[in-house]
């Protein structure tokens, strides 16, 4: 830190004030003091500071995972990460600043044209906030709480205290410990009993700084009989260089509630994306993870569902695209902890230009959970001989009354498919694009429909507002 | 004389080192329908595929000209955009890609002036009606789970929409019942009037419905006999053994 900066920021020992963009930036590196400083800066209650410190100590003691891509994991230099950065101007980056390769990877998702147009306008809508704000007020009238996590902690400390870390304890893994120690931002969403939130609720995250660590923390509680669709990433230019993204997401669906959580992460290709996402589904509740992994250097993410109540259902649809220098280590975990619970897992991955994709799945049925049904389908498409795909399915079935199916396929783009498409006027790249989009179609059709519907509703609301 | 569309000169072709075509000569003008008949393995499909530019087929000798221009430096998609069309014997399935999207994109890339949305839909609806194809085809995935007959209809639908100068039809009649064959034949006749047409078939029955101007008998990679429609009847009647003797 320069002396000038020290003068400017006064008491803040770990950051400096940037006169150009009004940033508070901690020095790189992690210590118990950094953890305490984050908590102090946020004026958190003592119990949260204590949770953070406890988690930090666990993080220090906890060894790195000894599975997955260890050589990549061990390259993470925790001392070269900025653990806290506050910017008063969060919308300074526009899509025009996003490198072409990132824009192109969004195109590869096969998001329809209308969707693309809408995404183009998202930032502007975000900056104006009028549309979103009007929706949020509408939801607030029904008792829905939708806040960033820091505000959530300030305004609803009792709820946070009750549920924080109950789905993903800090000691779950090294990165959940890290997140719990230094978390900042994320969403807090509460849906009251019986409330059905018709339009998706969106969160908008972005990091721009080099060597930045982003550790958002999200907690969603859907009370009895409520439904909500939470969308993250797809509409957010998640852009970062040389960063570590380690989020924790906890979902709780009470009896009869339904949560759909949709993500498309498109980090730039030098981001470590090490995320713990887990949900608890109580009686007759439904959890749907719709999870797309397109970017990052290394992603390790296995959206999980604990089917805790009888009749609960889990749906995990995920796609992974691993290009040059990327390893997508993704999958799903479903624990059937109660009888007559059901789950569907569909995982699709594409490896290209030396990329590597791994499916890591766990399906558990406890001995007492009778009459469970589950279907797991894993399809991998390998586009060239330099690329790789692995499948690591684990099944622990504790009784004989449950019905489980597992299908796995690995395929390559055939020269017949390419020749056929090229004979219809498509260049080789266009032909490949069509085949890849087709492969991902079972996933993408889950996204744009919702988005198209939402767009129409947002526009309708805009029109209503402007006329009325 | 009508415009020369396809000229094949002394064509020798190998697949993975095995010689398949051993000196084929053929000229097709606009407005002509040619049929090539022969046993399995005679090289008929190889001829169609190599003209379209399949990368697995290597030309070891001879040349192919399309509208007077040598084809060797033209990529497959460029051949398509230049007006060449191959109706596949076994069309590949493209899972997840809807027929409607595929057709629209294909027509847009092949035609110089792609039709506008409404115009295209009108044209598409008319062509599908002609081929007795239900609208539900459009939302299905290209050839994915299609019956043999459905695949062939989709091939002919593409031919109607792409309006080729040169249509190569590789066993388009196989897998079709007689009603479907009539419908498909009608489509071929419509395109054939103003294009050059090469029909590869085992059977006479398609040629009853699409009258060829020339019939070629192919054996072991060469055309051994050329005649009019009567040759097809003779081949149907006598088989290919007598040609063995003749050779």
Q: Given this structure, which CATH class of chain B is correct?
A: Alpha Beta
Compute the number of strand runs of chain A: 23
Shape of chain A: globular
Gross morphology of chain B is globular
- Summed up, the domain count of chain A is 2
Name the chain pair with the biggest interface and residue counts per chain: A-B, 23 and 31 residues
Secondary structure category of chain A: alpha/beta
Separation of termini of chain A? 54 Å
**Uncertain segments of chain B:** none
Quaternary state reads heterodimer
* Regions with little confidence, pLDDT below 50 for 5+ residues of chain A: 1-22, 88-99, 101-135, 234-240, 450-468
CATH superfamily name of chain B? P-loop containing nucleotide triphosphate hydrolases
Summarize the structure.
With 468 residues, chain A is of the alpha/beta class. In chain A, 31% of the residues lie in helices and 32% in strands.
Describe this structure as you would to a colleague.
In chain A, strand 1 and strand 2 form a beta hairpin. Chain A has 2 domains: 85 residues, no CATH class; 372 residues, no CATH class. In chain A, helix 8 packs across helix 9. In chain A, the strands form 3 sheets. In chain A, strands 4, 5, 7, 8, 10, 11, 13, 15, 16, 18, 20 and 22 form a 12-stranded mixed β-sheet that branches. Chain A is of the alpha/beta class. Chain A is globular, with a radius of gyration of 22 Å. Chain B is α/β, with parallel strands linked by helices. In chain B, helix 5 runs parallel beside helix 6. The model of chain B has no long low-confidence stretch (mean pLDDT 92). Helix content of chain B is 37%, strand content 31%. In chain B, strand 4 and strand 5 form a beta hairpin. Chain B is globular and about 55 Å long. Chain B has a 6-stranded mixed β-sheet, with helices on both faces. In chain B, strands 2-1-4-5 form a 4-stranded antiparallel β-sheet. Chain B has a two-stranded antiparallel sheet with strand order 7-8. Chain B has one domain: P-loop containing nucleotide triphosphate hydrolases (Rossmann fold). At the A-B interface, helix 11 and helix 12 of A face helix 2, strand 7, helix 3 and strand 8 of B.
């Amino acid at each position: 830190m320069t002396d000038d900066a020290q003068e400017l920021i006064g008491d803040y020992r770990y950051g400096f004030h940037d006169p150009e963009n009004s940033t508070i930036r901690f020095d790189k590196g992690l210590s118990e003091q950094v953890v305490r400083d984050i908590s102090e800066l946020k004026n958190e209650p003592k119990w949260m500071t204590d949770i953070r410190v406890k988690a930090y100590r666990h993080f220090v003691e906890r060894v790195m995972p000894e599975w997955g891509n260890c050589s990549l994991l061990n390259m993470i230099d925790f001392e070269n990460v900025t653990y806290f950065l506050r910017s008063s101007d969060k919308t300074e980056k526009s899509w025009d600043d996003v490198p072409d390769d990132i824009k192109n990877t969004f195109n590869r998702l096969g998001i329809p044209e209308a969707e693309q147009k809408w995404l183009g306008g998202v930032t502007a809508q975000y900056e104006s906030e009028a549309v979103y704000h009007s929706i949020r007020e509408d939801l607030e009238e029904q008792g829905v709480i939708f806040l960033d996590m820091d505000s959530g902690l300030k305004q609803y400390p009792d709820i946070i205290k009750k549920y924080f870390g109950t789905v993903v304890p800090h000691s779950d893994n090294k990165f959940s410990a890290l997140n719990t120690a230094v978390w900042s931002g994320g969403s807090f969403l509460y849906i009251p009993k019986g409330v059905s939130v018709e339009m998706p609720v969106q969160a908008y995250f972005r990091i721009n700084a080099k060597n930045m660590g982003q550790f958002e923390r999200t907690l969603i509680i859907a009370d009895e009989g409520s439904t909500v669709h939470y969308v993250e990433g797809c509409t957010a230019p998640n852009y970062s260089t040389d960063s570590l993204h380690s989020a924790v997401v906890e979902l709780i669906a009470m009896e009869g509630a339904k949560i759909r959580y949709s993500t498309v992460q498109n980090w730039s290709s030098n981001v470590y994306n090490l995320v713990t996402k887990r949900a608890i589904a109580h009686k007759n509740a439904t959890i749907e993870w719709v999870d797309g992994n397109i970017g990052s250097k290394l992603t390790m993410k296995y959206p999980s569902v604990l089917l805790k109540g009888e009749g609960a259902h889990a749906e995990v649809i995920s796609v992974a695209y691993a290009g040059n220098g990327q390893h997508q280590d993704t999958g799903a975990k479903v624990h059937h902890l109660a009888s007559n619970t059901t789950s569907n897992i569909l995982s699709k991955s594409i490896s290209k230009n030396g990329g590597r994709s791994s499916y890591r799945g766990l399906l558990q049925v406890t001995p007492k959970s009778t009459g469970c049904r589950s279907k797991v389908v894993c399809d991998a498409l390998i586009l060239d001989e330099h690329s790789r795909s692995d499948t690591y399915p684990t099944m622990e079935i504790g009784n004989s009354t449950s019905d489980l199916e597992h299908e796995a396929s690995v395929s390559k783009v055939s020269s017949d498919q390419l020749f056929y498409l090229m004979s219809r006027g498509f260049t080789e790249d266009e032909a490949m694009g069509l085949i890849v989009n087709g492969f991902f179609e079972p996933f993408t059709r889950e996204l744009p429909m919702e988005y198209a519907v939402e767009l129409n509703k947002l526009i309708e609301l805009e029109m209503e507002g402007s006329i009325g | 004389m009508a415009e020369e569309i396809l000229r094949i000169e002394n064509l020798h072709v190998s697949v993975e080192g095995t010689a398949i075509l051993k000196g084929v000569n053929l000229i097709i003008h606009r407005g002509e329908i040619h049929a090539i008949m022969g046993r399995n393995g005679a090289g008929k499909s190889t001829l169609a595929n190599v003209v379209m530019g399949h990368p697995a087929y290597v030309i070891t000798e001879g040349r192919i000209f399309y509208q007077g221009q040598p084809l060797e430096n033209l990529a497959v998609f460029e051949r398509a955009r230049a007006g060449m069309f191959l109706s596949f014997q076994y069309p590949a399935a493209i899972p997840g890609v809807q027929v409607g999207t595929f057709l629209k994109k294909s027509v847009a890339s092949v035609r110089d002036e792609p039709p506008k949305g409404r115009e295209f839909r009108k044209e598409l609806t008319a062509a599908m009606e002609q081929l007795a194809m239900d609208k539900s085809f459009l939302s299905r995935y290209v050839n994915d789970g299609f019956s043999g007959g459905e695949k062939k209809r989709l091939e002919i639908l593409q031919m109607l929409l792409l309006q080729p100068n040169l249509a190569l039809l590789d066993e388009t009649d196989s897998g079709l019942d007689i009603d479907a064959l009539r419908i498909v034949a009608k489509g071929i006749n419509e395109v054939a009037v103003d294009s050059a047409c090469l029909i590869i078939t085992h059977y006479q029955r398609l040629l009853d419905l699409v009258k060829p101007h020339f019939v070629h008998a192919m054996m072991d990679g060469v055309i051994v006999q050329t005649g009019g429609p009567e040759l097809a009847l003779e081949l149907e009647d006598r088989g290919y053994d007598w040609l063995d003797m003749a050779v």
